[in-house]
Amino acid sequence: MTGIHPQAGLTTGDADEAAMKRTLASRAAETYVLGSAEKIGTASRYEVLPLDAVTAVITDVAPEDAIGR
């Protein structure tokens, strides 16, 4: 993912990559997303999944720092 945004969800800048990631997530029992600080609060052009469709987001950002980004 290139973006993890509260409203836009999980996004990427490539349509084919977004489609592939949606397919992989749909076939997985659980989906975990890795997101570094620069990805939190940003959105790219193509939606992959809404945030509520993943099991968890693993990041280096403290929860209190991510609110309101």
Gyration radius, rounded: 11 Å
Poorly predicted tracts of residues:
none
Helix content: 10-25%
Roughly what fraction of the amino acids lie in strands? 25-35%
Mean pLDDT: 91
- Tell me about the largest β-sheet: 3 strands, antiparallel
How many helices?
2
Look at the helices and sheets and give the structural class: alpha+beta
Label the overall shape: globular
SSE order, one letter for each helix or strand: EEHEEEH
What's the number of extended β-strand segments?
5
Order of strands in the sheet with most strands: 1-2-4
Q: What is the CA–CA distance across the termini?
A: 17 Å
Describe this structure in words.
There is one protein chain. With 69 residues, the chain is α+β, with helices and mostly antiparallel strands. It has two helices and five strands, in the order ββαβββα. The strands form two sheets. The protein has a three-stranded antiparallel sheet. The two termini are 17 Å apart.
